[in-house]
Specification:
The complex is a heterodimer of chains A (117) and B (114).
Chain A: E1 4-7, E2 10-13, E3 19-25, E4 32-38, E5 44-51, E6 57-58, E7 67-73, E8 76-81, E9 90-100, E10 103-108, E11 112-116
Parallel strand pairs in A: 2-11
Antiparallel strand pairs in A: 1-3, 3-8, 4-5, 4-9, 5-6, 7-8, 9-10, 9-11
Chain B: E1 4-7, E2 10-14, E3 19-25, E4 32-37, E5 43-49, E6 55-58, E7 61-66, E8 71-76, E9 85-96, E10 99-104, E11 108-113
Classes of the chains: A mainly beta (117), B mainly beta (114).
Chain lengths: 117, 114
């Protein structure tokens, strides 16, 4: 089946620094990638949708200058949290969409736990 | 704006018992997903329901979809401890510019007690 990887799986950084999270589709090309954020004991909230080679579409309330998304190829999207603060500590999950047996399917990565101290 | 409501949000049940989790959504959609999430982990896909009346079963879990009522159910039969997890339903809807998005319910935290 389709596999999506994320790197790193865990990261701890100091307040004010930037962190980059990578999301890769390992055995398929993803037409669209999504970034979600999940705070403890809450649901997943969509942050942004990105298509290869074009600018990401951010959901209302998500600061695009703070959460930089680059979707440089059909297998790689990156999320950079700039000038991170403790309130950015969260579980970030990417997902990638591809056509599987004629249907568009969405596959989730394993997530990245970000802790900002 | 699509709203997805799950209930209950917390469910504590004894092993061997049956129970149902409900997922209501507010606008037309013909595609609904159920996911399982274990603590500290990402989502595991359980079911995708594509049409009205769809029913899928895997082990002790059975999911159904009624698109007219905008309701999906996840039924647990003879619960075992290994089913303890958080279960999310997610509804797919068109978001414009040829794109579809998933909107998640708040999740149901299931604890199965021996």
């Amino acid at each position: 089946g389709a596999v999506v990887s994320q790197h790193p799986s865990r990261v701890i950084c100091k307040s004010g620094t930037s962190v980059k999270i990578e999301c890769r589709s390992l055995d398929f090309q993803a037409t669209t990638m999504f970034w979600y954020r999940q705070f403890p004991k809450q649901s997943l909230m969509l942050m942004a949708t990105s298509n290869e080679g074009s600018k990401a579409t951010y959901e209302q309330g998500v600061e695009k200058d703070k959460f930089l998304i680059n979707h440089a190829s059909l297998t790689l999207s990156t999320l950079t949290v700039t000038s991170a603060h403790p309130e950015d500590s969260s579980f970030y999950i990417c997902s990638a969409r591809a056509r599987d047996r004629g249907r568009l399917e969405q596959y989730f990565g394993p997530g990245t736990r970000l802790t900002v101290t | 704006e699509l709203k997805v409501e799950q209930n209950p949000l917390f469910l504590s049940m004894q092993e061997g018992k049956n129970y149902t989790i409900y997922c209501n959504y507010s606008t037309t959609s013909d595609r609904l997903y159920w996911y399982r999430q274990d603590p500290g982990k990402s989502l595991e896909s359980l079911f995708v329901l594509l049409s009205n009346g769809a029913v899928k079963q895997e082990g002790r879990l059975m999911a159904s979809l009624d698109t007219k009522a905008r309701l999906s159910t996840l039924h647990i039969t003879a619960a075992v401890h290994d089913l303890s997890a958080t279960y999310f339903c997610a509804v797919e809807a068109y978001s414009g510019a040829g794109s579809y998005q998933l909107t998640f319910g708040k999740g149901t935290k299931l604890s199965v007690i021996p």
